[in-house]
Amino acid sequence: MSDCPDILISLAPAYTKAILEGTKTVELRRRKVHAKVGTRIWLYSKVPTARVEGTARIERFQEGDLKGLWAEFSTEVGVSKKEFEAYFRGCNKGYAIVLTGACAVTPAPDLTAMRQRLTGFHPPQFFKRLEPEEVQILLKGCKMRSVDRQPSVSRQERYRSRATRRLMT
Predict the structure, then answer these.
(1) Of 123, 116, 107, which is closest to residue 137 (Cα–Cα)?
(2) How far apart (Å, rounded) are the C-alpha atoms in residues 8 and 44?
(3) CA 16 → CA 20, 68, 78, distances in Å?
(4) Please, are residues 57 and 38 in contact by the beta-carbon 8 Å criterion?
(5) Residue 63 CA to chain centroid, in angstroms?
(6) What is the CB neighbour count within 10 angstroms for residue 128?
(7) Other beta carbons less than 10 A from residue 35's beta carbon
(8) CA separation for the pair 166, 143 (Å, rounded)
């Protein structure tokens, strides 16, 4: 694993928007992302947006069975139960990346600009580790603006909510 603290992930534009609005604080993955807590994640919105729109930091990782992931993070993943189940169809376990410190990148470099700045750039299917030179190129001419986040629900409130949902099922 590289010591580089930056990775680039591809997301549906709606998920990038939700992260930057603070309504999605957990990114789900079918495979483990080999990165460290504190890693800066660059958020690439897929076509039709096709631009790097923001960053966030990895606060922590959670690996688990799907029932447990849904119970713990359902209010933070930005998807419905049906979407969650469809995404993880065929999997026994999943991975949650808890995000913090989301920032919007302005102006957001589009795919054409990315290819001009980084020779041979292709958006990743899963994630791409960025070299320090690539990070410097991404930062050139861009500003990072912290985004206002919705007040987070405390762990105790989430626990009570999970306990209530279990009693109702």
Answers:
(1) 116
(2) 7
(3) 6, 24, 10
(4) yes
(5) 15
(6) 18
(7) 21
(8) 44
pLDDT one-digit tens code per residue, 107-138: 999 999 889 888 888 899 889 999 888 898 88
In the chain, the DSSP E strands lie at 6-11, 26-29, 40-45, 51-65, 93-106, 127-129, 143-146
- CA distance linking residue 54 with residue 150, whole number of Å: 17
Per the CB < 8 A criterion, the answer to whether 27 and 19 are in contact is: yes
For residues 126 and 52, the answer to whether their CB atoms sit within 8 Å is no
- Partners of 41 in the beta sheet? 7, 56
**Nearest-angstrom CA–CA distance, 116 and 22:** 31
CB of 60 within 8 A of CB of 98? yes
Q: Which residues of 109-127 are buried (b: 16+ CB within 10 A; e: fewer)?
A: bebebbeeebeebebeeeb
Over residues 38-94, the pLDDT tens digits come to 999 999 999 999 999 999 999 999 999 999 999 999 999 999 999 999 999 999 999
Residue in 125, 113, 121 with CA at minimum distance from that of residue 9: 125
